[in-house]
C-alpha cells in the first residue's frame, strides 16, 4: 500500500504521517504543512442558489379571452340506438334519453324467418326502418335539439351491415345526429365453465 493511500485511512494516518512528511520534504519544493486544515471551498458551505430569472415566466395564453367569450356547449341528453346482433337475429331498439323505448325492429319484422333473421340483409333493412323513425323524431324535436348514441352489442353478421348502412349516402341526415358510437358487448374473462361445444 502506498503512503498516499494509507494516509487516507484514519487508523494509519498517525503512523504514516512522519514517513509521508519526510518523503514530501525530500522532493523539490516539498515544503507542505500537514497540520494545517485545508480551507473549505465557498461552494461547499451553502448550496447553490439560482438567479431569479432561472425559470422564465410563462407568457399569457392568447386563447384565454377567446375561450372566455365563447359559451361552453352543453350536450343534450342523447337518444340511443341499440344494435343487438347475434347469429340468429338482429334487433335494433331506439330509446329516449330516459331509457324508455320508442321503437324496436327485428329481422322477423322485415320479412325474414328462422335463421335468415341473422343475415346481413335483414340487418340492413332493420337499420333503414330504424333510421326513418330517428329522422321523424328529429323533426319533432327541432333542428339541433337531438343527439344520438349508437351502441353495438354482439358479434353477429348484422353488426357490420348496420354500420355500413349508417355510412351510406342516404343515411347522411342520421349520421349528423350521431355523437358517439360505442360497443357494449360483454366479454367473459375467466368466469364459469363454457357450454359444451356444438358438434354437427
UniProtKB/TrEMBL annotation:
Q: Which InterPro entries does this chain map to?
A: Ribosomal_uS11, Ribosomal_uS11_sf
**Gene Ontology CC terms, in alphabetical order:** ribonucleoprotein complex; ribosome
Which Gene3D superfamilies would you find in this protein's record?
Ribosomal protein S11
**Mind telling me which residue stretches traverse the membrane in this protein?**
none
Entry keywords, A to Z: Ribonucleoprotein, Ribosomal protein
**Gene Ontology molecular function:** structural constituent of ribosome
**Similarity section:** Belongs to the universal ribosomal protein uS11 family.
Q: What is this protein called?
A: Mitochondrial 37S ribosomal protein
Q: Which organism is it from?
A: Phanerochaete sordida
Amino acid at each position: 500500500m502506498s503512503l498516499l493511500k494509507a494516509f487516507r485511512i484514519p487508523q494509519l494516518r498517525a503512523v504514516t504521517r512522519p514517513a509521508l512528511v519526510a518523503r514530501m520534504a525530500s522532493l523539490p519544493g516539498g515544503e507542505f504543512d500537514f497540520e494545517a486544515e485545508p480551507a473549505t471551498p465557498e461552494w461547499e458551505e451553502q448550496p447553490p442558489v439560482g438567479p431569479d430569472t432561472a425559470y422564465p415566466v410563462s407568457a399569457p395564453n392568447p386563447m384565454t379571452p377567446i375561450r372566455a367569450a365563447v359559451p361552453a356547449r352543453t350536450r343534450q341528453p342523447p337518444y340511443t340506438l341499440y344494435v343487438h346482433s347475434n347469429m340468429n337475429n338482429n334487433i335494433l331498439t331506439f330509446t329516449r334519453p330516459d331509457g324508455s323505448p320508442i321503437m324496436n325492429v327485428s329481422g322477423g319484422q322485415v320479412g325474414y324467418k328462422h335463421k335468415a333473421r341473422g343475415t346481413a340483409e335483414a340487418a340492413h333493412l332493420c337499420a333503414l326502418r330504424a333510421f326513418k323513425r330517428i329522422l321523424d323524431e328529429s323533426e319533432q324535436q327541432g333542428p339541433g335539439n337531438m343527439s344520438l348514441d349508437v351502441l353495438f352489442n354482439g358479434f353477429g353478421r348484422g353488426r357490420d351491415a348496420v354500420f355500413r348502412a349508417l355510412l351510406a349516402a342516404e343515411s347522411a341526415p342520421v349520421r349528423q345526429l350521431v355523437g358517439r358510437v360505442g360497443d357494449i358487448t360483454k366479454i367473459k374473462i375467466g368466469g364459469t365453465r363454457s357450454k359444451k361445444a356444438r358438434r354437427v
